[in-house]
Amino acid sequence: MKLADCTEPAGLARRHVRGSLEGRAAPERVDDAVLIASELVGNALRHTAGGPDCMCVEVYRDMAVLRVHDAERHVSRVRARSAEKSLDELTGSGLGLLLVGELASEWSVRPTAIGKEVVVVLALDAGGLSERDALPYIPAVRPPLTAEFHQLDGGHEEFDSR
């Protein structure tokens, strides 16, 4: 789904994730995925010049993979703050990825030809996934979003029907 030039990318991302996962995941996991999408898009809005380019939700039998791409190339800037820091130190910076780390089975960030993408693997049932089951999906379930992003002809359309 294209997010560039969208007036409310976080809201669009939340609706897309909810629509993609409702009926396919435990309700609490749908809520977790919506929160993760909101955090990733919000981070791209706050910490990059252009905000998020696009987002993809891939749904498999027992897991979902969320990808958010932006044009910022500095992968090293994407990191969660330590949970050991005081709440005062964390407020305003780092809480989002700390939440993502707690809710997701795995997450990573990787460079692409024109920026970077954050990839999150999320179990669709309330029991979660073991690290062994999640690792094959990191860092890439499929090629980076950038190739598909360049093929978009405008509007807010999904890349595919998954």
Overview of this protein structure:
The chain is an alpha+beta fold. 35% of the residues lie in helices and 20% in strands. The protein has six helices and four strands, in the order H-H-E-E-H-H-E-E-H-H.
Key phrases:
alpha+beta; 4-stranded antiparallel beta sheet; disordered C terminus; globular; 162 residues; 35% helix
Radius of gyration (CA) equals: 15 Å
Order of the strands making up the biggest sheet:
1-2-4-3
- Integer average pLDDT: 77
The succession of helices and strands, N to C, reads HHEEHHEEHH
| Helix percentage range | 25-40%
- What best-fitting shape do the alpha-carbon axes yield? globular
Low-confidence stretches: 138-162
| Straight-line N-to-C gap | 12 Å
Alpha plus pi helix count: 6
Main sheet makeup: 4 strands, antiparallel
Query: Structural class of the secondary elements?
Result: alpha+beta
Strand percentage, roughly? 15-25%
Number of strands: 4
What's the layout of helices and strands?
Blueprint: H1 9-21, H2 27-47, E1 52-59, E2 63-70, H3 87-90, H4 95-103, E3 106-112, E4 115-123, H5 131-134, H6 145-149
Antiparallel strand pairs: 1-2, 2-4, 3-4
